[in-house]
Amino acid sequence: MDNDVERKHCSFCGQRGKRGMRFAGGLGAMICQSCVGLYHEVLSSQSRSNRDARPPWDEMSDTEVLSYLPLIAQTADQVDEFFVEWVELARSRKLSWAEIGKALGTSRQAAWERFARRVEDLNSLTGSA
């Protein structure tokens, strides 16, 4: 799994990772220390939780909405890369394409078609086999 913070970004604010930064994450989403602090404050205060419960896009201009599209795409790409890494992990544990397909609610063939080439490419980049 790729844990290099410099190749990650915060899924909440879009900040790109830099040497020395720390991210927490799971299932492909990452969160920076600043956002952890912010959301800790929001969730620790009932009045702030109520105030911040409205979706932020309700008050955004069209320009602001458009400015978030690349950040959302960046997060989707990060989650997709994480997904491929997990499929590669499953394959490295000798789990079959049929087992992977079943876990994803699809056929062996569909799982293979979706991931085999990307897993092979990932292995060639990381030197895994």
Briefly note the structural class of the backbone.
mainly alpha
**Fraction of residues in β-strands:** 5-15%
Domain tally: 2
Assembly type? single chain
Mean pLDDT score, rounded? Answer: 90
Number of helices: 5
Shape summary: elongated
- Radius of gyration, CA atoms, in whole angstroms: 18 Å
Question: Order of strands across the biggest sheet?
Answer: 1-2
Q: What is the number of E strands? A: 2
**SSE string, helix = H, strand = E?**
EEHHHHH
Give the biggest sheet.
2 strands, antiparallel
* Spans of at least 5 consecutive residues with low confidence: none
Distance linking N and C termini = 14 Å
DSSP helix fraction = 55-70%
Describe the structure.
This protein has 129 residues and is mainly alpha-helical. The protein folds into 2 domains: 1-53, no CATH class; 61-129, no CATH class. Helices cover 58% and strands 6% of the residues. The protein contains 5 helices and 2 strands, in the order E-E-H-H-H-H-H. The chain has helices at residues 33-44, 46-51, 62-92, 97-103, 108-126; strands at 23-26, 29-32. A two-stranded antiparallel sheet has the order 1-2. The longest helix has 31 residues, at 62-92. It starts with 22 loop residues before the first strand and ends with a helix.
List keywords for this structure.
mainly alpha, 5 helices, 129 residues, single chain, two-stranded antiparallel sheet
Give the structure's gist in a few sentences.
This protein has 129 residues and is mostly helical. Helix content is 58%, strand content 6%.
